[in-house]
Protein 1
Amino acid sequence: MKRQRLSPEQAFAAMSIFLERYRTRTHDGDLSALLGDIQINERDSRPLDPAAWSDWLDAIEEALHRTEEFVAARR
């Protein structure tokens, strides 16, 4: 994924998507478990749970797609 800057709205949407998918996948809203999964590994600067990184990237892509659809619909 190329490096890009998200607007505050896009970043918030990505966070919301990420959290909703986490809750759906785990059937749990346990914040402690989530925080453990996304804790940053100092060796590679990625989350301790490798799946969390790909989940985050997917959430960003969806948030960007939703924004594009919203902008297109307003034209």
Protein 2
Amino acid sequence: MASFYVQNFGCRATQAEGAAIERQLEERGLARASDAANAEIVVLNTCTVTASADRDARTAIRRVNRENPHARIVVTGCYAQRAPEELAALPGVAQVIGNSHKHLLAEIAFTDHAAAAHPTKASQNRKCADAFVPLSRLTTSTSLAASLNKNYSSPIFVSDIFAHTELLAAPVFDAANERTRPNLKVQDGCDNRCSFCVIPFVRGQSRSLKLDEILREVDALVTAGYRELVISGINLGRWGRDLGAALRFEDLVQAILENSGLEKLRISSVEPMDWSDELISLVANSPRIAKHAHVPMQSGSDAVLRRMHRKYRPWHYRERVEKIRAAMPTAAIGADVMVGFPGETDAEFDETLHMVTTLPFTYLHVFTYSARPGTPAVQMKKQVRSQVASERNRMLRELASEKKLAFMRSFVGKRLDAITLNERDSESTECLTDNYLPLRLRGQHQANHWFPVRTESVREGKLMGAVDAESAL
């Protein structure tokens, strides 16, 4: 029996797609290997949101080829969609399959693996030959292959991502916590055109998983015993807009509550303009929805937001976050913030710093701008020096750490609901609170159980606490 291993890079959406690929390969009779070194087929599901993500993928390809030279390396994902010939040039790569053909990956990889094992049957086994796109028809912005002056003959399966309507996803589980908190991708693609972002060009237009399919997946997860579910997407708040039934994201949330026995629903990142009054009220008033809002900000400067082509202004953003805090006083509120965007002046960064200081954030994801080939921002003048961007990144991270610590300390001595993740040692169990705080619960407890916890202190960046009542929620 042939074996496979899937390694995912990047966001939750990529992880969900990797889970779907694993499911499809297993349905074809392949066995999951423990690691890439022991697999016959190695699938690398890449990200391309930054230059660093590209480097990580290339490093992983070289490592797999070095440690397992006989493996068939299949590269897929966003990097494969953006620059397939760069990846095809790397030693050991057997196939490059873009997001446009990711839904066919299991069929393509399995067929070509069988063809390699039985060359005389290659012609009859190659079911996806019509999906192959010659290199001469590909259009990419840069070519690492050309710079390396290498020839490459790995088959490439890439076509116009905007012509595709498929949505590949399956519930995905944290590698360390497979018994808790599955993640379900319900939306893919993005119709925004932020000037710094390559994602729309590698994932295509916004498209939604149909409501009945989502409810089937939720029911299956509840039946399997899961107590919390995270729903996610590339632009999650746009769910339903393409389904032709006047559906909105809040309709999906309400449908999950009304049609399933799920104990706790957690919502992933939602853009500020999609945090409607109705959604805020729904999250605030339902005990079955985690009190947690992630609201991407990117910048607190109006001028920078305009250059980014973001669809909101700082005052709009502030109004949404303050409304979330007023409705949910104990909620975790997080944001993505970018520093070093082209032309960002000291004064513009100070506006971002002021916004972060004065808004009730409890954590931040801070990123330094990374030029992405083909995006408008690459052509903008006054690129920010790396040393300046790095210093701004440090300042925001330190501020975010202070805010997170203050938020955690505000709950010492109070009662919170927390779900057990796994046992840390003989004396405590790792947990996550309803409002997204790491907590260490005294004693050994089975994973995937909700407990009322009385918090006692903050230690090593985590709340410490003990069960507040005999019975779990």
Protein 3
Amino acid sequence: MESAFFRSFYVLFFIEPSSRRVHVTTSTRHPDSTWVTQQARNLAMTFHDEGIQMRFLIRDRDSKFSASFDEVIETEGIRIIRTPIRAPNSNAYAERWVKTLRAECLDFSLIVSEAHLDRVLRTYVRHYNRARPHRGLGLLSPESTGPATPVKNVPEIRRRDMLGELIHEYSRAA
């Protein structure tokens, strides 16, 4: 991700393939194995607090994913699967999420700092997980409780704008 001042920022994210739920870490300008390992620790604590049980983690073969990263993940009982060499389609969920993030959010934003990028990503991921419909989930969001119940009379709808009117969320007015 390039900022308005031509600085590169890097973000580590995790996707639950079954629910399409996304978890995003904080951004950095200098990713290294220490940073990636710390993000894995933070994610493991989040999973533990929320009671999420993961069976495996698919990751690429980047050198930033060191033995310490693998150790943190494996101590949580998660099996690590490395993507094959020169097989870009093997991590299709991640590639699709990056494309969606850029098309719906980052292509229309001028990011000025790490803190600004973190705030934009937190807001977008909250929208993505709670309100954005997904075709693969029957037009439900990853954190939805079930399909919407049909109504006889259309209630008054309220629109909430987010990220400077870039994203709109709709709900019934109280």
Protein 4
Amino acid sequence: MAALVVGGIPAAEAAGFSDHELGEFYPLSEIDEAVVHEASAAVVRFPSASGFIVDPDGLILTNHHVYESFGKRGTVWRRWVGDGTEEALKIELVSKDAKHDVALYRVIGEHGPLPFIELRETAVKPGERVFVLGHPSGDPLRASFGKVLADGLTIGGRPSIEYSAQTWWGSSGSPVLDSRGRAVAIHWGWDSTGISNGRLTGVPATLLLGLHGFEALGSDDDVNRCDAGWSLSAKLIDARVKQSAGGRWLDRVELRTAHDDRRCVAAIDSVTFRLHPSFANPVVRTDGDEALTIHSWGFFDATVEVELDDGREISFVDHVAWK
């Protein structure tokens, strides 16, 4: 995943999976990881808690104990970062489960497709890197970084995983995400010792997908939604960064496979880029939705072969253009 320079902070000095302090909250402007910025668009702020969108139609997960104070309907705010650009969303309750401390809401009224966070369908392993996005103390969006500590636990009567990071009052309902931006759990609290900077607890996403009353999380009215609609995004990173053997100045360009439905992008297992024959390495394979960086001076057509994690293969041709 390409690194970002945000708010004038060089990437080497910004927070990320490999460079952070356990127990610290980081505003988005201090974060290096692109996956954090992408996931942040789907996090919502309740009046005194957090939640996250898990479907482009507007399904939102939070805790049952958040529902107890929020009620069956009300207003939440998407991507509350403190600059006045947040989006207000009216929501109503779909289902709730006190035993697992989880509630499901849906955005009501007219709205377009919303950014969302995919629920991971496979279990976590101790040592995996994770991050938490939410609104501790009602603050603008904050992230913290850590690792999975344990899985398969029952804490406070709830099936749980444990992880290191940082949360506080207001973090209830925050997504706990892996390094690809998939939610592995919904944060619900601290461990039995009440330590916030250490062993935090959340309900695993694998359980939520099979929970009675939460069938909408696994529904798919269009199983073939990813068979079409793909495109190739080309973004200029640096202009005229080096010269070719023939003396042409080459731009540095980032190529990425795109789809209007983020569920399709999240389902990518690998991508094979077949570039113009003039490239020294015209065929390049990447994992997941990882961006490909090339150096080129002109425009060309490229063939892209996408392999999804369900085994499907889709091929399309698109024009590479960045100016």
